[in-house]
Each structure stands twice: as structure tokens, then as C-alpha cells.
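Running this now, will post back.
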Amino acid sequence: MSDLPEGIQRREFDGRQRLATRGEPVYGEPTDGEWRCWDAGRSKLGAMIETGMDVRLTAGDGVLYLGAASGTTVSHVADIAGPTYAVEFAARPMRDLLDVAEARENLFPLLKDARKPESYSHVVESDLDVLVQDVATRGQASVAVDNARFLADDGRLLLAIKARSEDVTAEPDAVFDEVCEELHEGYEIIDRERLEPYHDDHLGVVARRR
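Update: finished.
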């Protein structure tokens, strides 16, 4: 397993060594002083780290997070990173995300559609270090490629592919291969791993912008 990214530790919660970041609790997760458990069962990015993928998320990184939902994972990212732009399309989880952002001055919620990056290009800075994507929609590769515009030349993509969102009838491995092939339009894939047992029918991908 690769070394943990800066700002993440393994600490004991419920008798087990689990991932943790330092920040205000968000979703009822166990805490140890200033440290809060990062539940990989509720976070695809957490699962990527737990499975040993080198996500290369470092302190101070500029991040664009697509599919922020109510803030479960992006709150951990903001605990580590620098400016973190959190895009979410649905109004209901956005209300929760706004509450999460109150305790994190570097977290900027955006009620936008990740499939339309032009709608937030005037807000999100360019030359960001990391694009994190967890969107349950068809065309997940297209979303990642279209949003590569915000990454620096050596920027990294941390993508969770949900097979059932692409094609509920196809074998997940076939879906993963197809999505990864489409990603080559904008990225060089560094690593890919299934996210079981934390998330069924999901593939984690680490890639570098071409």
C-alpha cells in the first residue's frame, strides 16, 4: 500500500485502524480529538486510498470536486487541500453542503451541472492540481474530459466510475474498459482498481492530464 497523502492519518476508531483527517465532523463519523474518521464505505475517494491507490492528494492542492452531494467526501478533501470548488447539481444536498462549508473557509460550494463546465468557468480558477469526480450519470468520461480545462498541465484526475450509471444491463468490467478508453482523449491513466468491498460495481481511476 502506498504512503498516505499528507494530512491523512490512520487512527483507531471502534477498535480498528481507519483513515482520518483533521476537521469539524460532518456526517456523524467517529472522532478522536481533532481527528475525524474518513468512512471508506461512504466515500469512493476514501475507498481508493484504502485499496492502496496513489491518489497524490497533497496539502494545499487546488481542487475541483464534481458530484459533491451533501459534503461527505469533499469535507475530508477540504480538510487537506487548499481552495476546493465543490460542484453539485441538486438543491437539497446543496443545503447540507453549505452548512459543511461554514466551518471550512477554503470550501466553495457551486450549485452547477458538472456536464456544463462553461457555467462555472468564470468562478473556478484554472491550473488546479486535482480534479475529483464522483457523478452518477451517463457519460462519466465526457464529464472528466470536458473539465480537464481547469487542470494544470500536470494535473491529476481522481475518478470513481459507477458502472450502473453508464449501463445497468452491461457487465461492469466492460463498462469500465469503455469509459477508460474514452478517458484517453484527455488523460493518461496511471492506475485503476475495483473498489470492492467498499463499493460494488465501482472502479477507481487515477490519471494525469495529457
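The chain is about 25% helix and 30% strand. More later if anyone needs it.
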